[in-house]
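The instructor's notes for this session suggest beginning with a concrete chain rather than abstract definitions. Hand out the sequence below and ask the class to guess, before any prediction is shown, which regions might be ordered.
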Amino acid sequence: MKFIIKLVAGLLGLVLTALLVVIAAVALFVDPNDYRDDIASAVQKQTGRELAIEGELSLGLMPCCAISLGETRLSNPPGFEQASFARVESARLGVQVFPLLTRQELLLDELELVGLQVDLLRLEDGRANWEFASDDSAEPATDSDDSATDSETGLSGLSISGIRIADARLSLRDIPAGTDIRIENLDLLTGTLEPGEPFEFDGSLRFIDGASGTEADLVLAADATLDDDNARIELRDVDGSISGSGEQTGSFELELTTAAAVVDLSDAVQADASDVGLGLE
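After discussion, reveal the predicted structure:
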């Protein structure tokens, strides 16, 4: 599960970067659809994959600058039967221009993703479609690039008004390991996200484990804080429920409440045991 969380975070970052590139590239009275080939070429260079923007690109200037993408697909590498690795029905991101120009603060409006679908697959020979190889023409990153600070980039702050994900679907099939996991009907809504600052989130999903025959529905709400290194998520006032059934477990229903928990994306998952409630029916 940690792997999926980190991968989804990376994909969100890729979508965010692509949308920011489009916003920066287009200006007033410019049709953003003229930049389809440039965007696809940049993604090809960075990932080695083909990006197909099948829907319309649109630019909104009021009340701020925003870019919207229609249906978009990212291809699988050669040798995989399924053509697409990831797709999204629509995406939208806005940037508040005044703080960027006057205070060099990057304040983003809500990132919206509708119909996101990601299919992860490891073949019998060990090849995995989540392993990306950049184009040979791309220059490798240097240590100095990794150590760039906010002052070097000219940006003193980064804030996003929130993330809304609607009707997302994730799947993970690892043929050598016999893993077959699907996450369906994923909905997520967050408050404003800033490094080191707490934000609210509310989400739900359906979990299906094809190997064990387990299916479960999860609903979860909490206050969360992401540390500056994006390696730990601290959760507080967690309130949620899990219900489902499995061949080995039978039907089950859990009510989950906990005062605090920590999700360590780089190592392990641990929970603060203080004021934890667990109900089982």
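Then share the key points. The two ends are 25 Å apart (CA to CA). The helical segments are 2-25, 36-47, 97-103, 143-146, 150-153.
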